[in-house]
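Thread amino acids onto this structure.
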């Protein structure tokens, strides 16, 4: 083993012995004015975690209310405000920014061998825009709330409700600029700052996923931003844009909103898919089967995602012919998603699979996303959608994709790169237990909702017929298990910051440039500019090298 390899393999005796991005300035000012992409990622981690907690509290209030057929915890208006707060917080301030803002910010420069993102000041500005939008949303939500649902459908949102539509709408509008700036920054960084030898087809699939996500952010977010701005103008100045009583068209709002909001589903799921590709390759010790197909599938999902929005409008007066076209396009977007699942499965086949915690989340993702995707095909079918529209079947499908997909990928990625971010290991036993709790709790929460929706229970109601109570109690019990599954990682991650075992620079024996620098990385990421001469995920060559040096192929702790 060479001196360099030895240095990379062995953990330091103390993290304070060498400078890194965490020790480069300790004051609050050094964090709030930082231009280091890794510190910006930590700022996103703190903020996103707070909004996740808030959205989770709203969710638990809803589930406790729904344990009984009658409204005995929340008033009807309060329930409407709670589920709107849950939706707005989780979609716009957790699911969309979580992986790009945290893992994307931290990893993209490291993975391509760059010292930072292309526009460091723009990167910090995007976080401040996110915080500004989030603060306005928080003020509006906690000071009376909004009762329109997270979709803000007019004319109710423009003319009738007396809740805080203006301030929350402006908050989401400002947050949209954060997404646009982040996406633009990532695209320029990937195009212009790759190290020598890092060609497009030597990029990790995480980078391909983030690039596809950035395309949607840049092209789609302006549409919903201007739509919400028009809604604010109509409410302020009584213009006839969406209100039919004033000559407006409420269906126009739905078209504009879903033109962005269905691609937004892929803003949430594509980064998670990108994480899963990294986890599957590492813990199978194999190159991803059909690398090029998986890479182009990310771009295909991003492109096709823009032409399927009409399947949200089957019952909104849309023509049958338009419905048939959107139904066909919805079937087509399932193909690149299926390609990814197939290729991950083939990567697992005859691989040296190691069931570490990140891998458990990856396997959970494949199972849950497959169910979510298949039920999405059901909902894309005209005849079936008419019957289950606005029922809990839609709620279950959405959460199987978003929670079962996005959050499983997010937690898997956070566990995978936590040693790189902090230089510390978490307790593996508790991590595996939390992964089990999340998987079991999730299925117990949302699978009964498929049955509820098929039986005809409408969503957004706080009261329901008694025959639905048993399944609702089961769903609430599952939500309690799921909440515990989210609390446990929070505890051991915080514990690991001080008491966790020191991690080596590459505790997983993974491939990729981010593992060739120290843990935590220095401020400039690399001591010398790296160069790339191999294909990504060259685990076969790595295994041969490790065997020659007597190094075990994978880490367990």
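Threaded sequence (557 positions):
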């Amino acid at each position: 083993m060479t001196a360099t390899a030895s240095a990379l393999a062995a953990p330091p005796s103390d993290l304070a012995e060498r400078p890194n991005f965490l020790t480069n300035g300790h004051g609050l000012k050094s964090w709030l004015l930082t231009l280091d992409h890794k510190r910006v990622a930590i700022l996103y981690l703190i903020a996103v975690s707070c909004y996740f907690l808030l959205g989770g509290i709203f969710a638990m209030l809803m589930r406790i209310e729904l344990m009984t057929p009658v409204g005995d915890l929340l008033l009807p208006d309060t329930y409407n405000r709670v589920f709107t707060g849950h939706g707005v917080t989780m979609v716009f301030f957790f699911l969309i920014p979580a992986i790009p803002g945290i893992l994307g910010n931290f990893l993209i420069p490291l993975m391509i061998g760059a010292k930072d993102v292309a526009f460091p000041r723009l990167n910090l500005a995007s976080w401040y825009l996110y915080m500004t939008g989030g603060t306005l949303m928080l003020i509006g939500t906690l000071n009376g709330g909004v009762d329109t649902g997270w979709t803000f459908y007019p004319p109710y949102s423009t003319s009738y409700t007396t809740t805080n539509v203006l301030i929350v709408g402006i908050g989401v509008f400002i947050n949209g600029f954060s997404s646009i700036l982040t996406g633009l920054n990532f695209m320029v960084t990937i195009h212009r700052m790759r190290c020598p030898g890092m060609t497009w087809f030597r990029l990790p699939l995480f980078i391909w996923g983030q690039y596809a996500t950035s395309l949607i952010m840049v092209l789609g977010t302006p549409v919903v931003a201007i739509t919400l701005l028009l809604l604010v103008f109509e409410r302020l100045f009584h213009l006839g844009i969406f209100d039919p009583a004033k000559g407006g068209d409420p269906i126009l709002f739905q078209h504009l909103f879903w033109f962005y909001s269905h691609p937004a589903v892929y803003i949430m799921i594509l980064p998670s898919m990108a994480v899963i590709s990294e986890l599957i390759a590492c813990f199978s010790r194999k190159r991803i089967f059909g690398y090029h197909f998986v890479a182009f599938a990310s771009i295909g999902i991003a492109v096709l995602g823009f032409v399927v929005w009409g399947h949200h409008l089957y019952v909104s007066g849309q023509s049958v012919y338009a419905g048939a076209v959107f139904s066909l396009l919805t079937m087509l977007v399932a193909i690149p998603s299926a390609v990814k699942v197939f290729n991950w499965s083939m990567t697992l086949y005859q691989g040296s699979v190691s069931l570490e915690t990140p891998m458990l989340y990856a396997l959970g993702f494949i199972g849950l996303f497959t169910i979510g995707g298949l039920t999405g095909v059901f909902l894309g079918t005209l005849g079936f959608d008419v019957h289950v529209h606005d029922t809990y079947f839609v709620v279950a499908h959405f959460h199987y994709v978003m929670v079962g997909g996005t959050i499983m990928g997010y937690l898997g990625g956070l566990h995978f790169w936590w040693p790189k971010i902090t230089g510390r290991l978490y307790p593996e036993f508790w991590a595996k237990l939390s992964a089990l709790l999340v998987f079991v709790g999730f299925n117990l929460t949302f699978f009964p909702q498929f049955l509820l929706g098929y039986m005809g229970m409408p969503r957004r109601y706080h009261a329901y017929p008694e025959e639905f109570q048993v399944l609702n109690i089961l769903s609430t019990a599952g939500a309690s298990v799921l909440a515990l599954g989210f609390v446990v990682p929070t505890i051991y991650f915080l514990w690991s910051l001080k008491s966790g075992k020191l991690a080596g620079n590459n505790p997983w024996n993974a491939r990729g440039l981010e593992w060739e620098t120290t843990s935590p990385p220095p401020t400039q990421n690399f001591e010398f500019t790296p160069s790339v001469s191999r294909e990504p995920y060259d685990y076969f060559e790595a295994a041969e090298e490790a065997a020659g040096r007597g190094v075990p192929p994978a880490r367990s702790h």
